[in-house]
């Protein structure tokens, strides 16, 4: 990893060994984080609340099982969602502290609060550590050991990613996709619902599709390869092939699930009809990645209206089919 003081573009603030800006710097440089004072707005942005959207995966297993109408199930699912929001935000904060020197070389990531000097690295690291410890600690009194085990696995995987795996090509894709899968598994663990092979395969392939699309969009950004070791080891053609493979296998798996019931029942008809919006979601996502806007999947989900409409139709049909079944 290159030293921040030598690699930073002209005009950035000088950086201390821990990556924190030490002075106001020339015009246009990020502001100095003074005396560890917590800037509430900067801290709120640093925990990345938009990315909590990923944690909605904990509702997938109870939702496809038709159990979200049960208040107890809904409460456990909501608790799992909160725990994963805390754990993931803690990971983001520690990642930002560790990656601050390189983030300053990235045209978008340089605006993150730690890299921009709006949030003290010590405050970010301390808050991140508290959140990482608070998530499993809050799960212990509930006595829900399956949920605690999945949460612990998530923390181990995210820690391994931060320290080692993020710099290993291919393994970084698997690690981030695995974090998404663990969110979905946590939803089943929280309420004791067994996960079907169809569910796990679709979730695994979908996670790989999204992560690969994110890396591909990052690689299309000029100079982005300097900010991540593994990124420079990929090629656009390789990532496109992985994305195509994952989406093709996912569509086939979903179709096999949707058409599994040979009988013509209302539920089977609705499930079969859900194939159409499912494929449209995948096709729309491919189009957006090809346009180079897949670097932030949560932004796509929040802003792209066609994707939202197709996703809403998919959820409605799947939910209606589960209800009928």
From TrEMBL:
The chain crosses the membrane at residues 74-94, 115-139, 145-164, 171-192, 198-215, 236-259, 265-285, 306-324. Pfam families: UbiA. The keyword Glycosyltransferase applies. Residues 1-34 are annotated as: Disordered. Its main location: membrane. One of its GO terms (molecular function) is glycosyltransferase activity. InterPro entries: Prenyltransferase_related, UbiA_prenyltransferase, UbiA_sf. It comes from the Bacteria. The lineage of its organism: Bacteria, Bacillati, Actinomycetota, Actinomycetes, Streptosporangiales. Keywords: Glycosyltransferase, Membrane, Transferase, Transmembrane, Transmembrane helix. This is Decaprenyl-phosphate phosphoribosyltransferase. Its EC number is 2.4.2.45. It is an enzyme of class 2 (transferase). It is found in: Membrane. Coiled coil: none annotated. It is a multi-pass membrane protein. Residues 1-21 have a biased composition (Low complexity).
